[in-house]
Amino acid sequence: MTTKVAILGACGVIGQRYVQMLNNHPKFEVTALVDVYPGKKYSGVTDWGHGGGFDIDIPDYVRDMKMVSPDDIGSDVSLAFSGLPSKVAGQMEEKLAKKGVVVVTKAGDYRMEADVPLIIPEVNPQHLSLIKEQRKNHGWKGAIVTAPNCSTSTFVVPLKPVYDKVGVKKLTIVTMQAFSGAGYPGVPSLDITDNVIPYIGGEEEKLDIESKKILGDGKKPAEYKINVYCNRVPTLDGHLESVFLETKKKITVDEMKQAMRDFPGTGLYTGPEKPVIVREEKNRPQTRIDRYAGKGPSPYTAGMSVTCGRFRDLGDNEMSFVCLAHNTIRGGAGEAILIGELLEKKGYL
Amino acid sequence: MTTKVAILGACGVIGQRYVQMLNNHPKFEVTALVDVYPGKKYSGVTDWGHGGGFDIDIPDYVRDMKMVSPDDIGSDVSLAFSGLPSKVAGQMEEKLAKKGVVVVTKAGDYRMEADVPLIIPEVNPQHLSLIKEQRKNHGWKGAIVTAPNCSTSTFVVPLKPVYDKVGVKKLTIVTMQAFSGAGYPGVPSLDITDNVIPYIGGEEEKLDIESKKILGDGKKPAEYKINVYCNRVPTLDGHLESVFLETKKKITVDEMKQAMRDFPGTGLYTGPEKPVIVREEKNRPQTRIDRYAGKGPSPYTAGMSVTCGRFRDLGDNEMSFVCLAHNTIRGGAGEAILIGELLEKKGYL
Amino acid sequence: MTTKVAILGACGVIGQRYVQMLNNHPKFEVTALVDVYPGKKYSGVTDWGHGGGFDIDIPDYVRDMKMVSPDDIGSDVSLAFSGLPSKVAGQMEEKLAKKGVVVVTKAGDYRMEADVPLIIPEVNPQHLSLIKEQRKNHGWKGAIVTAPNCSTSTFVVPLKPVYDKVGVKKLTIVTMQAFSGAGYPGVPSLDITDNVIPYIGGEEEKLDIESKKILGDGKKPAEYKINVYCNRVPTLDGHLESVFLETKKKITVDEMKQAMRDFPGTGLYTGPEKPVIVREEKNRPQTRIDRYAGKGPSPYTAGMSVTCGRFRDLGDNEMSFVCLAHNTIRGGAGEAILIGELLEKKGYL
Amino acid sequence: MTTKVAILGACGVIGQRYVQMLNNHPKFEVTALVDVYPGKKYSGVTDWGHGGGFDIDIPDYVRDMKMVSPDDIGSDVSLAFSGLPSKVAGQMEEKLAKKGVVVVTKAGDYRMEADVPLIIPEVNPQHLSLIKEQRKNHGWKGAIVTAPNCSTSTFVVPLKPVYDKVGVKKLTIVTMQAFSGAGYPGVPSLDITDNVIPYIGGEEEKLDIESKKILGDGKKPAEYKINVYCNRVPTLDGHLESVFLETKKKITVDEMKQAMRDFPGTGLYTGPEKPVIVREEKNRPQTRIDRYAGKGPSPYTAGMSVTCGRFRDLGDNEMSFVCLAHNTIRGGAGEAILIGELLEKKGYL
Q: Looking at beta carbons, which residues of chain C come within 8 Å of B172?
């Protein structure tokens, strides 16, 4: 039996990725599309294709589906994926949670609430248990579950097995982020062509507080020092990050690579077999070449692995590596869907 | 004695070019900046630099100038340069014309009105005489004078000497236009990166009707068949156009080049010595290399010449060439300022 | 039984596309890779990935295959696909043809020879019969069969049904071509970033003479006037072309679209069901969005359709449209493989 | 009296910048151009314009100058600026030094030799005294003086006043470098478009060893730990670097900014008044906007300042900032010319 699913913000960059990645999904059936113009056909209100991806045309299954307002989401819908922008998202998501829907959201509004799980399925699935507390606190039948910001997932996925093995005292991260991370219309071409912008509003704080919540024990955040600079570079998709870390215990480059290679997948439909792909070439990962790494059961699940390379032992328990992930798949719609699959498996729907 | 000048839409892509090009102007003194937030300093309300250009910082002369609302433009201002978007522009420009200001505008609202001059100073300065009729029709002390769309100027400037010599029966033009032509924020980077968009709303009609008005006798538009496709390409500045033309009388490639080379400049401050630069290299003009062609008295007047190349005799009185102009200078602020200088010289202010 | 196949120039942009598109091919088995360093493993000598495409890694089936020199191609190989650059290609291809191999080549050396078929499988499959003449003339057991230049295929595929219906008197074409068309390393980033280069050496002549040979009767080229400007624009893959045509008989926009929509595919494995996709949106085809149009049996056969749009009736039997094709798939490796499949079906191997 | 000057590698990206920046130089007169094709005119052998810059055409003063071979450089030439690629450069430069010419070179061959000065004029002019030792060691009348790699200058210029004030224990640097840094043809467009390449061969070591030599006392290199990742990003010109530093003594953000603002220029012709420009905007420096910072006496000397921003106190004597410099001007031809001016002033010619 399939789970009936709503997509909130279905016309945006993340929303269109949800539509692509849920095409022919074995367990989830999209029955409600929410964005603008309730009553109109999806194909009439969405500007398909700006967000890239493999599908030139709107998938048939949603082409003629009529947009609904959040209030008209059927009571048979038990799961919603949200690509709404922060601030807009909060109220609508709360309303649905109250009504009994479990909302998995990319919006930042509730990520840091104590009783809201902030989940990367491979990293901290156990934090889903916060849902019980959340339901009790609010009297909700549904729930709000959050996925982290794209630039957080990119380094936390490969860091997790190292963190577990030797601990982390300090992180220094410099990101080079694609402009699809800013949504649509997002970054003006006049701003980013032939340019690097060394600032993304609110982004640097997210790598700090989100990673600590995810790597924490569910109650208390993890503790380490973290220095971050975030840069917007002229690429369509894919966030590349330089990571320097000071570990609590010694680890070699080979041990680090092995820990990442051995880091297990979830076994869920949208999850890659290997969450982390370690490459040995000296000039990899590269944004355009590696962003679709991690083939899944269909082309629509490609882009779910993080690719790492350029490992170095810097002495004094300092190590460094470069990592790359597709920001609207691994760091976006794909990760949210993976959370949905985890929720379903764990019986939270 | 200097003419006091207002800039309308001073924060936009064209508005910032006005600010740059009027820096140290020998005859025009900017005394009023109109855009948003009247009462605030220009440096506080403009997002300087997105439009490119030589100046990294806001020129000192406008840095602390307080924005004014159109109603507060002083009565000593006799000339206004407008970079307002079409539709917004009309009402404000009319009001100023009524009040006695001569408004030179890049907005499209009035370009095709019978009593509104549509001027390229090198091509049809005599059309300024329409101002008399306009003043009579509306009872205005000022006037509205329009500059053509950027993609029109690009081919009309080099076409004019050929048109005068051998006439034109038919034009087929394909444009490759920079995204600064769409203003700011304008074209999203997600739309144009690694892409060509074969459509610019309303643009193709403009090349048709505007060129015919400009090349007409002031009463009746010129007559020829014109086929146009406009394309947006991933370049910052500079519109490159492939032009195929059928002439009424025979002309050789050498005669065409010579006619363009001999086409005289205006002798005005912002006007280039040579409005058309003919290049012999087989791979020129190129957008990035040639867009600042036409050095003037200061670096701020570079970019006022149209560069042509790749001339061909196609037989049957068919000729072709490629032309390129800087869309926010020759096809933008520079051309409007040149019109202002012409108005001043001809005593219309 | 499968046909054993060699790839010439297997490390280049086109060569890597051959490798991708022949992965899991139902009839062709790649058994020889020719480029540089005979004796070395393919994975050791190719710089995989610069040419884009879906595969992040070298497909397993060729990873450890040893490069061979042309002289060591086994006698069981009856078909070769060549991505060699023109001039280099000629001698090697002749040698193989002599030896009994049918070489399908993207190189330009022999395209215009009277006894060498220049083939687009949907357009002029009957020209393959020239092979008999070629074999007789040279005493070869194999043959050389050529595929046209990428910018030729792009407009000839959609033109063909119109040509058959109403004839063509004149064509005016302006191309906007991706830099992958220049191979690797090809166009320096310093040349093409933020630029349009209005010239591609030797390209414009190809659209003229190749299209006339293809649309001719196998003996005599088709006759029409053709004016072409070729431009290099900053896109990775995909050639977009503005096409103006004067037909011999009248045709309406609707009839033209219908003729293109009805243009039949080959029924061959790599051939798309619909060689031409007609789009109704006013801003399509777009290079990045539409270049992979034409899904085939696997993701590796996507990109084989030409997408058309922006149709117009210009009066006086003049029509115009915009077309786009993937230059290294439809206009490259894919078309050559399609020719190979046609040769196999028609019994030429 | 002017100094007669030769340019080695005059057709390359750096060589063309030398030609631009020495146009109308008050003390240096270019009398010899060396690259390929001795005997031919410069305008016939250089592919002018690929390297960007303000000049659309070859400056008149070199247009018809005949290329010479290194052996034919006149004995009146006492200074040479070299933009030759490393490895090629060494032998030719030695020969000239022997002959009595002082060669200022961007090539890497001799940078780390104990008796070869590696100079940034604002930072370590006193190291020029190594020339005496060099002349004694080799018996040369001329000398070889080296300028650092572009990515070294970018951070060493702003670091110097901080280094002098509070010392440095550790540096962590991530660069985002333009492709003009790789020369011409340099980086293929297929490699860098829509991509970040996290590796530049040999570059990371240079930031380490060169900065230590420059900040050292002329005999012994400076001592600090340095971690570097170098990235190639899709920008034409301008290297942007994220810099994290641990100082020996405490310094505040305000003190750091002040030290940089107070860092004195050389007073030389090509040197900017302020070697470091500190910006307060949260999203600056930006590559495209700030790369021409540091106006000098003519537009041809713009681009000589390093722009810094985004300063932070990270606690524990850790500070961070972002810096940007034009790699072919400040980090290229401009810095070499500045060294030449210093040599002239100090009487080394």
A: 172, 244
From chain C, the residues in CB contact with B193 under 8 A are: 288
Q: How far is Cα C195 from Cα D126, in angstroms, rounded to an integer?
A: 44
Task: State the amino acid at position D84 in one-letter form.
Answer: L
Distance from the Cα of A13 to chain B's closest Cα (Å) equals: 10
Q: Name A146's bridge partners.
A: A105, A118
Which residues lie closer than 8 Å to C233 by C-beta, 6 or more apart? B176, B196, B233, B234, C176, C177, C178, C192, C196
The percentage of residues in chain C with a pLDDT greater than 70, rounded to a whole number, is: 97
The pLDDT-based confidence of D56 (bands split at 50, 70, 90) is confident
d(CA C315, CA C318): 5
Cα B237 to Cα B240: distance, rounded to the nearest angstrom: 10
How far apart CA B240 and CA B177 sit, in angstroms, is 6
Strand partners, A241: A175, A323
Phi/psi-derived region of residue A92, left when phi > 0, alpha when psi is between -120 and 50, beta in every other case = alpha
Report the percentage of chain A scoring pLDDT > 90: 90
Do the Cβ atoms of C69 and C38 come closer than 8 Å?
A: yes
CB contact (8 A) between residue B56 and residue D194: no
Determine whether the interchain pair D240/A198 forms a contact, defined as Cβ–Cβ distance below 8 Å: yes
Cα–Cα distance between A137 and C137 in angstroms, integer? 89
Closest CA to B183 of B40, B2, B12, B339: B12
C-alpha dihedral (C109, C114, C116, C121), degrees to nearest 10:
110
Q: Do C150-326 and C3-149+333-345 have the same topology in CATH?
A: no
- Predicted confidence (pLDDT) at residue A55 exceeds the cutoff of 80: no
Pick the CATH number of D3-149+333-345 from 3.30.565.10, 3.40.50.1100, 3.40.50.720, 2.40.50.140: 3.40.50.720
Mutation for testing the A interface, residue in C20, C54, C56 having most A CBs under 10 Å = C56
- Is-catalytic flag, D239? yes
pLDDT bin (cut points 50, 70, 90) of residue B215 is: very high
Residue B11: CA count within 13 A, CB half-sphere: 18
Domains of chain A by residue range: 3-149+333-345, 150-326
Amino acid D221: pLDDT = 98
Identify residue C25 by its one-letter amino acid code.
H
ipTM: 0.96
Q: Between the CA of residue A295 and those of A269, A274, A298, A301, what are the distances in Å?
A: 11, 9, 7, 6
Q: Which two tokens stand for residue D337?
A: 């010319």
Q: What pLDDT does B50 receive? A: 67
With an 8 Å Cβ cutoff, is A299 touching chain C? yes
Signed CA dihedral, B194, B198, B203, B206: sign only: positive
What would the two tokens of residue A53 be? 């991806």
Tell me if D52 and B288 make a contact (CB, 8 A cut-off): yes
- pLDDT tier, D52 (very low <50, low <70, confident <90, very high otherwise): low
B234 chain-A contacts, CB cut-off 8 A: 189, 193
Question: How many angstroms separate the CA atoms of C124 and C205, rounded?
Answer: 20
SS3 D169: strand
Q: Which of residues 29-58 of A touch C (CB under 8 A)?
A: 49, 52, 54, 56
**In this structure, are residues D198 and D253 in contact, taking their beta carbons and an 8 Å threshold?**
no
Question: What mean pLDDT is predicted for residues B121-126?
Answer: 98
CA distance B210 to B213: 5
- pLDDT at position A36 is 83
CATH architecture of the domain with range D150-326: 2-Layer Sandwich (3.30)
**pLDDT value, residue A53:** 56
Per DSSP bridges, beta strands C143-146 and C102-105 are parallel
- Residues forming beta bridges with residue D144, ordered by sequence position: D103
